[in-house]
Amino acid sequence: xxxxxxxxxxxxxxxxxxxxxxxxxxxxxxxxxxxxxxxxxxxxxxxxxxxxxxxxxxxxxxxxxxxxxxxxxxxxxxxxxxxxxxxxxxxxxxxxxxxxxxxxxxxxxxxxxxxxxxxxxxxxxxxxxxxxxxxxxxxxxxxxxxxxxxxxxxxxxxxxxxxxxxxxxxxxxxxxxxxxxxxxxxxxxxxxxxxxxxxxxxxxxxxxxxxxxxxxxxxxxxxxxxxxxxxxxxxxxxxxxxxxxxxxxxxxxxxxxxxxxxxxxxxxxxxxxxxxxxxxxxxxxxxxxxxxxxxxxxxxxxxxxxxxxxxxxxxxxxxxxxxxxxxxxxxxxxxxxxxxxxxxxxxxxxxxxxxxxxxxxxxxxxxxxxxxxxx
Length: 375
Ligand SMILES: [Zn+2]
What we know:
The active site is at 337 (proton donor/acceptor). Its cofactor is Zn(2+). The chain has eight helices and 17 strands. It is α+β, with helices and mostly antiparallel strands. The chain is globular and about 65 Å long. The relative contact order is 0.14. Zinc ion is lined by residues 168, 171, 261. Zinc ion binds at residues 168, 171, 261.
């Protein structure tokens, strides 16, 4: 009896080349009109008690080949709890092959690059937050496929704070982070949220790229455009998602902004700043460094030793949100990167980096913002 493999669902992505018994040869579909591929999400049926051997090939050409080294695939049988499966990578097998071995207890198991965050769950998140006391809903605009760019607003203070996530749709940990942030911000009893809402007006966009999310893309929108390379000149034709966001920010101004992402290769949580922008000042740079230091002290899951190389003077890429928003508004802007793998400083052999840990990190980010504002 052969297993069955399906991916025709929300954020599904896999192509089946061959199935033989409990083994399969697979490929990842490219993002539409794009060369990027790395996100996978599929289910396997008919394998209770049998050891699966799932081989995803052609990965040396994927967006981040270094992401496969030391990576373990996510697996769930109830679509709620996501563990890690035994996984190995051989760059010399079939153009780079990830081999996943797993023996499911029940007859259906789900595999994904990271625990998925479905568009249905996104709508639940928006609905629940919008129904909370003191929270206003605002539609910023629409995606190319006509989906709303949802924004939740709260707080009576004057400091404009923006939190945005999932410009890169395959980085689903970013929306798990948002779920943690919104649970705190919408809780009238949460002391961190109460202080933030007293001092700030918060604008929260949990998913900047709903089309890419439901299509099972790694990095782009419906037209294959990388939204985090559009911030210098977003357009209605290519990147209406960014155009809507940037226009809304032009109305409110921005004092502090965090853009939430996931990183394929580096096994750590880290921030990237805006070094190299034309209007760089040591004073604004010090504000960013101070936030980073506060978060490092507060969260054992955050560190500052590992991260991206820093741009030289005048070399910042202004098509990226963090650089553009620091330049445009003099904002303390930053990109938060969470790992697809694990935080190697505090590893969890069972789950690796997970939805649960992403949500907890969001709480520490908000508490750090309170401390930053008070300093
Ligand atoms: Zn990203």
